[in-house]
Amino acid sequence: MKSRYESAKNVFIDSIDLDDYIELDSSLTAYRQLEHSINKPLKMILLFGRPGTGKSILLNRLQEKLKQQREIHYFDTPAVNEKEFFYKLFKVLTKKSLPQNTEVNFSALVNYCKKLRGKREIIIILDEAQMYGAEMMEKIRLLSDSRAVKFIVSLHKTDDEDLIAKEHFQSRIWEVVELKNATLKDQTAYIHKKLLKKNLFEIANSIKEKHMKLIHKFTRGNYRECNKIMYTIFEICEYYDKNEPTKVNYEQIPKKVIEMAALKLGYIDV
Ligand SMILES: Nc1ncnc2c1ncn2[C@@H]1O[C@H](COP(=O)(O)OP(=O)(O)OP(=O)(O)O)[C@@H](O)[C@H]1O
Ligand SMILES: [Mg+2]
Fold first, then answer.
1. 193 lines ligand 1 (CB under 6 A)
2. Is the pTM value of this prediction over 0.85?
3. 46 by DSSP, 3-state: which?
4. CATH class given for the domain over 25-179
5. What's the CA gap between 214 and 254, in Å, rounded?
6. Is any atom of ligand 1 closer than 6 Å to the C-beta of 56?
7. Is 27 in the pocket of ligand 1 (CB under 6 A)?
């Protein structure tokens, strides 16, 4: 028989599918800031936050919501090389494919963009932009000078480097939107809403406030880590449900299970 925990477990498979999007305080604030920035005469907007804070899912949502009114394009992982990138950009800007075996002439592309000024405004979302080199970033900036193309650049923030401090992000053309790690309130809402969306009411109720605090402590409010621990918790519950159902407490997830999951994921040591 299928355990109810199996469905709960699958709720927490990492995904940036928009059907799985959940409105959280932080995502709503960042969304509004992005939308507001887009309407200002800025050339570049920077979205940054640690890995797993929800940048990609938010950018996908922005594109989905605005695509009826605006020319907006989402570039997920950076193209393998500069040639590929400009090829993709050429296609978006000119709405034509480049003939085979031809390369995009960069200065011609800049001139093309200048001519679009005042006629079209194209928004390009560049996700995972920490992977673009300095030279590419400079070219992207030159394109944005045309004021016909506006870039939303999304970057991870890591412990050892403060990207904001990097030279090309210091100039005033940037407006910065930051996604922080989840607060306890947001993470609690995230876990509950995800389960409720799949009608898993009892399971959602079996995760109490004290559990949420523990999960928040282990994951430090990171959504990707939160997905991992929730998946592991339900995987353990599923095992007991199938093999030793008398040991399962359906009213409340035992603290021990959360600790077992944390141990398995290396958040704590024995
Ligand atoms: N608002 C949200 N609604 C639903 N799921 C979310 C939300 N925010 C984050 N998540 C979940 O957290 C996971 C991480 O989010 P996402 O991939 O967007 O992070 P990221 O900031 O782009 O990370 P990275 O910097 O590593 O690319 C997603 O797979 C998704 O499951
Ligand atoms: Mg991402």
1. no
2. yes
3. strand
4. alpha beta
5. 12
6. yes
7. yes
